Amino acid sequence: MVSAQPWTGYSGRHAFGVAVAATLVTALACLGVVLWGVGGAVSHPESAGLVNRWFLALWDNLVVDRTRWAFAASLGLLLLTGPGYGYVYGVAVAPVLYRVAALRARPWLCGALYGVLVWPLTLFVAFPLAGAGILGSELAGGGMPWMALAAHLLHGGLTASWLRLTES
């Protein structure tokens, strides 16, 4: 059902501020998951679990050995692009999605949809720029595309939910 009154969107300043906060939380969550996973994989390399093997391969592979800076660079890239993604969501995407009343009532869903839409930029642009290949194919850690999807879903959901919670 489309609402009768069009929603005008968030101010750029509001969208940018919320996007910065969501980006910081997402970066900390990504850092925490990677450190937890790598710590567990390195301390228990004999474990046969799929996720444990992904983290172990992420820690010990040729690309990471040659480009240890890539992890810091990827976090830096997240800190630079996250606010931009959130800003675009707040001023351009949310006004379009919120024309549908059912979506306006579920901002987390709108943010998650937006996260899925921008996820391919990481897979096909950011990963190759970092030397990891398309879809992270140059890394032995096969879970990289899925970890990137989880980060995009978290960032989009946080941005959209916090924008709705803080709107005036």
Structural class: mainly alpha
- Strand elements, count: 0
Based on CA atoms alone, the radius of gyration comes out at 18 Å
Helical content class: over 70%
- Catalogue the unreliable spans: none
Number of helices: 7
- Biggest β-sheet: count, sense, barrel? none
> If you average the pLDDT, what whole number results?
77
Strand and helix order:
HHHHHHH
Terminal residue distance: 24 Å
Name the features.
168 residues, mainly alpha, single chain, elongated
Explain this structure.
With 168 residues, this protein is mostly helical. The protein is built from seven helices and no strands. The chain has helices at residues 12-43, 50-59, 62-66, 69-97, 101-104, 107-129, 144-166. α1 crosses α4 (69-97). The protein is elongated, with a radius of gyration of 18 Å. It starts with 11 loop residues before the first helix and ends with a helix. The relative contact order is 0.19.
Summary, kept brief:
The chain is an all-alpha fold. Helices cover 75% and strands 0% of the residues.
Fold blueprint:
Layout lengths: L11 H32 L6 H10 L2 H5 L2 H29 L3 H4 L2 H23 L14 H23 L2
Helix pairs in contact: 1-2, 1-4, 1-7, 4-6, 4-7, 6-7
